[in-house]
Description:
The protein is an alpha/beta fold. It is built from 16 helices and 30 strands.
Amino acid sequence: MTQSTMSAAVWPGRSHPLGATWDGQGTNFAVFSENATAMELCLFDSQGNERCLALPEVTNHVWHGYLPGIGPGQHYGYRAYGDYSPKTGQRFNSHKLLLDPYALAVSGDMRFSPAIFGFPMDRFADSDRDLIQSDLDDAAYVPKGIVVDGRFDWSGDRYPETPWHDTIIYEVHVKGFTQKHPDIPVELQGTYAGLGHPAAIEHLTSLGVTAVELLPVHHYNAYPGHLIGVGLHNYWGYDSLNYFAPFAGYSAAGDAGEQVREFKAMVKALHQAGIEVILDVVYNHTGEGNHFGPTLSLRGIDNEAYYRLVERTPRYYMDFTGCGNSLNVRHPQVLKLIMDSLRYWVKEMHVDGFRFDLASALARELYEVDSLAAFFNIIHQDPVLSTTKLIAEPWDLGEGGYQVGNFPLLWSEWNGKYRDTMRDFWRDHHCRLGEFAFRFTGSSDLYQANGKLPHASINFITAHDGFTLRDLVSYNEKHNEANGEGNRDGESYNRSWNCGVEGETEYGEVLRLRSQQQRNFLTTLFISQGVPMMLGGDEMGRTQYGNNNTYCQDNDLSWFDWSLRHQNQELLTFTQRLIEFRKQHPILCRRRWFLGREIHGSGVIDIGWFNPDGTIISDEDWHDGSSKAISIFLNGEELPTTDKQGQRIMDDSFLLFFNAYPELREFSIPPSVDRKEWRVVIDTKYASGFVEAGSIYEHGQLVPVAARSLVLLACPHCFDTTSGSDTRPLPKDNDG
């Protein structure tokens, strides 16, 4: 590669918008740096030859210039000049080519080399090595920005705008879902085009989900140094290098800007099928790591502005994420970067919402998590973002970072308490009935007091981070040896139960119980109030053989094995029917909270809680952590909402019998629930789950519920109904 510095005149251009903006005649370049003393724009030809142009114009800390004749496909980067003084927070190094934070497309991956570090790697054993400036040029080893033609034919595209209470989320990895799909052309497997292919969409629509939540698609550092030595690389993508460009590795069309058009086509295809697209976004940290990490973008452009540095010792980074650094969300430009990115993905890429990774880190104004942080205020006031689906992962690794239930209005949350409670209930572990009741009904103890509705709770049993559903019932311990870290990585306390044998087995009784437990979890998930989210592949028994941290496993361990559709057809069919069942019954996806008491003095209750013998659960029972059986009455004739035409909504009524004991229990139909007859619809002891022409029970009869199973009985709403005695509301949460 050759490098030359051009003295040719650069037109002044504009300080906005940031990034590279093509107008049909040329391209405007603009990059923010508050502390740089000079900035060069570096252009690369097809052979990798570099020419550098000084950007002399600076407006409000934005360096800018316009180059006529420069258009789509042009590769570029920046070199920033200033002090290299890590002890004062400055890490400028003009020997390092820097990726534009606003690049709309990125070409190439980072290749590991000593040159990518701002300090000399030949002094690796020196704990002060980062204080010495490296003079190695890294342009050959780092990704470049691409000038993009953003035009796309969106005609006919409509945001599905699925109401929150009707939403069913499917968490999935773009590559993992499509890499081995037999009906997707080989050249499209593992790509955005593959996910937009009719074969992929057919699986999603047949399943019945309304939204895909994609693991990170922002361009990320795929080859962090600690993985290269063991022959692995970053698969999940939680090390962003850019917040505008779709990851080029998932593009079938190429990495010279075509990936943008391909991503848009994928979104359009999913929208046509009525499926929303939610992005998992990582605005809490970047892939540049700690003070010993590479200099790839923000660190070299303006380290002090973009990152949270340790007060009084700014050589080091605040780390609320466990990934080495934290973005400085207190700085106006960092807030602008995040907001510009979010708006871009909604307005230009047509996505429908976001899941914010380690969102508590974004709420730290100083050190404590602040629900009134500027980040939330800005989003709430934004006319675009305030109407999208906003989901928080409500924790980080800093002190006080576990914030489930504390995010403000407009935000839904991954409800970790729901996951933990349901796992504990269905295994042999202490679980208060009161805790179970709160989680089953949407976690009103967490969300109701601040004006939120049940959809604030994103309910999940499994997610990408942890065991799959099949592994949850097959392993007591994690088995992460393939990650090359001596099985030290990943969560050790998984609230799992292997049903008697660790790992794979041919023992029939164990396999039967594992299948039954999977049906128990899925049924519980889809009949609970709140928004269900399932991990992609759970519907067909996908396994990672006990690895609960496959962040670095870009291989068969993580990719979908589509032959499981046939091997586990009963599980797939059951999941499809469960989702359809939920959609058919508004009582299972209420828009308002249960009252748990007589409605308007009518003597009619909307939900009832009972012991297996039909008696009302007492205060003492609510706090019993050893009880593993509960009966729930859902009154479909007392829904507090109307349809779009203002007509009263009515539904069937349900009796739910949960038995997590290791032996059969008989349940009585409660005397206070007076219905003519009840028909069994779901019984998880059966492989099919759903019972055709199920048994009919009347008042006074006992309903047998097998060990570790769930039975759902239905009474059609056309029957006459009355109510008997009073029933008690949900227990008060004495644990706060």
